[in-house]
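Operator note (shift B, R.M.): manual run for Permease requested after the automated queue skipped it. Running by hand, logging everything below so the morning shift can see what happened. Input copied straight from the record, untouched. If output looks odd, do not overwrite the archive copy; leave it for review.
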Amino acid sequence: MPMRTTGGTGPVATTKTVPRESGEHGDIEPDRRQEGRERQEDRDEGRHLNSALLLTLLLVTAVMFQGPIRGALAAPVMQSWMTVFVAVMVQALPFLVLGVLLSAAIAVFVPPSFFARALPKRPVLAVPVASAAGAVLPGCECASVPVAGALVRRGVTPAAALAFLLSAPAINPIVLTATAVAFPGNPEMVLARFVASLLVACAMGWLWHRVGRTDWLRPPARASYEGQSKGAAFWGSVRHDVTHAGGFLVVGAMAAATLKAVVPAEWLRAAAGHPVLSVLALAVLAVLLSICSEADAFVAASLTQFSLTARLTFLVVGPMIDLKLFAMQTGTFGRAFALRFAPATFALAVVVSALTGTVLL
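Run finished. Output pasted below as returned.
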């Protein structure tokens, strides 16, 4: 215990040094604080449902109420609902996985400098180049959303990435070939779909560049994979995007199935007899049905009671905005973006497709 004198022969004051606990590597107070934080996190985690517990609860509930559930599923409305839901998921999921793989490949293997060289520096010129690039990439709208998100993360101007998002599912070779097969007696439908979709994609890209605001577009989230090998980072990115985008795809498919099951078929027959109303009806139907762009041409060809222009609107609107796309765009770019981008895209697609159909069909 150290001693200190106050001077001369006066009283001696002593100060006691309080020993600090130390471990092998010094002060252990930070370790104690860290342990306290970990215990608090464990307590907080215990208060919330994790995915495994939630799945277990759902399975137990399904077993307990299997009788009423089986009876409800036997109803014609529920059978129709299940048919549409499964059809949307089966059509969309492979292309969603394709888009996720492309997104992960762009994020991990493609350097940011590539896009600086591939696209013009001026956004006004980058928009049509990105729109035209959609013609060489097979895939549907479910694939284009994660790819567009990856482009934004890699520094591509949002106007160009959004133009690509709209054009890729509508003018790629697979979609145009399917359109030609579905309309063998109307080859002009292929040209009309290509022209109208490309015009809408460019117009929306330029419109976003002109009036879009940064705070409307939430940068797509991306987990950090620094320090990992390219293979580990690639599969980590794939798992992240499949979990993220897949959940919104399920929500969109459920909404499409619900609306499909409750919309009376008589409404369609009544709308087909009015030129303007028929265009609007098929535009709304394209949003509600949420059919994959590789399959929508065959659905449009079956709607023989409608004019070619109305069916062209169905083919232009569907790949650009539908229920599952709105849900996925909300999850990728944010609700503020989707609430503005989706209505503008819908209105522009209806107008452009109607004008294009009047001229070419």
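Quick read of the result: The beta strands are 3-5, 12-14, 22-23, 26-27. The chain has 17 helices and four strands.
Leaving this for review. - R.M.
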